[in-house]
Amino acid sequence: MDEPASPTVLVTNDDGIDASGLRLLVQALVSTGRCRVLVCAPASDQSGVGHGITWRHPISAKPVNIDGATAFAIAGTPADCTSLGISGTLFNGIIPDLVLSGINAGSNCGHGIVCSGTVAGAREAFMCGVPSIALSYGWVHKKSSIHDLKLAVESCLPIINSVLNEIRNRTFPLQFFLNIAVPTDVSNHKGYKLTKQGKSNIKIFWTQTSSGVSVDGDATANMYTHDTAGTTKISCSSPTQEQLWSRKIVRITENKSEKEEEGDDTDWQALQEGYISVTPLSALSCSEIDTVPYFRGWLPCVTDNSCSSSL
């Protein structure tokens, strides 16, 4: 009996084709000798682009030399890369059995999943019927190292190999894709934990970094007024010069009451406890069950109010 053909794995990411995480993941896959590795990743850093796609203009695909893999750098988003990579056109008719997106240097969990290009790379494959996994590591500046990133990749290999076996046996559920997040202290992780997407978020602050040249030489003026209650209000005049604002990501937070309501099975909570979070995701939004009755009663009132206001 002939040996079954080795599965084909497509690797993408959002940090760019030169990112250490992607290169370490490809190296680990190639070293196992268990699969054929294809790479279709952004030519530049596309972190935080979410599920953006390019459709107004063509995108370029440039061959890149990566040992043991056939690779292209794409002038597009992670979703573009996955879509092109699984289309069968870029790799001469080859359609991958599994898509891996990552490994990202920074954990993707909670509300952050929405804007994650890494997760979008896996989600795009899922929406096209190809099994996929998003991979991320809780990188901390001045604490984490490339060695930690390598350990994070290695910690994900058992799940990757298991998924490949499930795909070979045609038992992997196509209703979901997986989001794996590895804790910062990867060398002392406590193993895998099945989790659900939590409500943790990245706290954002904006700071003005510099201003452009004024059109008429005057800076934008702020006007302070007081209402009848003595409360100060601020209104801005029309800007007369360009302003530059920088996004500052401070930390990831989770509301205590939300955490208590959700229990300890959320992705962010698992990471804080030292587990590798494994979260099944889909492309459908899950409505908060508690809000459904509210909107069920609210929606008919919208029609009633609309009719009465038009009289």
What would you say this structure looks like, in words?
This protein starts with 7 loop residues before the first strand and ends with a helix. It is built from seven helices and 13 strands. The longest helix is centred in the middle third of the chain and has 23 residues, at 146-168. The strands form three sheets. It has a nine-stranded mixed beta sheet. It has a two-stranded antiparallel sheet with strand order 9-12. With 311 residues, the protein is α/β, with parallel strands linked by helices.
Name some characteristics of this structure.
single chain, 311 residues, alpha/beta, two-stranded antiparallel sheet, 7 helices, 28% helix, globular
Query: For the CA atoms, what is the radius of gyration?
Result: 24 Å
Would you list the SSEs in sequence order as H and E?
A: EHEEEHEHEHEEEEEEHHEH
Gross geometry: globular
| Total strands | 13
Q: Helicity level, as a percent range? A: 25-40%
Which residues form runs of ≥5 with pLDDT under 50? Answer: 212-237, 256-261
| Terminal-residue CA separation | 79 Å
What is the residue-mean pLDDT, rounded to a whole number?
82
Biggest β-sheet strands, sense, barrel = 9 strands, mixed
Can you list the strand order of the major beta sheet? Answer: 3-4-2-1-5-6-7-13-8
Strand % is 25-35%
Structural class: alpha/beta
* DSSP summary: helix tally: 7
